[in-house]
Amino acid sequence: MKRKLSSIQRPFLLHISGAYRSTPKAALQTILGIPPLHMQLQFEARFTSIYRLRMHLPHIITDTQKQDLEMKATGWSTHPSEHLKPNQISFEDGEAYIARKDILNIFTDGSKTEH
User: Fold this and answer.
1) Is the pTM of this model over 0.85?
2) Which of 2, 64, 11, 68 is nearest to 37 (CA)?
3) I need a surface site. Which of 8, 62, 72, 90 has the fewest CB within 10 A?
4) Which residue in 85, 6, 76, 91 sits closest to 40, CA to CA?
5) What is the DSSP letter of 96?
6) What is the CA radius of gyration of the chain?
């Protein structure tokens, strides 16, 4: 399997690098910074097993376990600015709030100042 994957990867390495056909595959992988395909597939399989499927893998394969990983937040979340409390900052236009005395209005463009 390793040899088949290597034979699949080699033409792509040659085209990406523009090197001669006689250039060794290991040299192409090193120059381009592309790992061998079989190693990349092993990494992706382990990542999927641990992170996405939350499977337990033996310590021989990896020392990373599912409880060591952070859970990704799922679902829709709303922007914090949509749930402002009265004493928090709002970046809305503010024309409706100018007359209110319980809200501190700060104008950064110099308008509406008492000078």
Assistant:
1) no
2) 2
3) 72
4) 6
5) G
6) 29
What single DSSP character describes residue 88?
Answer: S
- Asked if residues 78 and 68 have their Cβ atoms less than 8 Å apart, the reply is no
Token pair for 65? 């376990």
Q: pLDDT tens across 46-77, in order?
A: 878 777 777 766 666 666 666 666 666 666 66
100-111 per-residue burial string, b: 16 or more CB within 10 A, e: under 16: eeeeeeeeeeee
Both tokens of residue 16? 């990406």
Domain boundaries, the chain: 1-59
Q: Which amino acid is at 92?
A: E
**Helix segments in the chain, DSSP class H:** 2-17, 25-32, 37-47
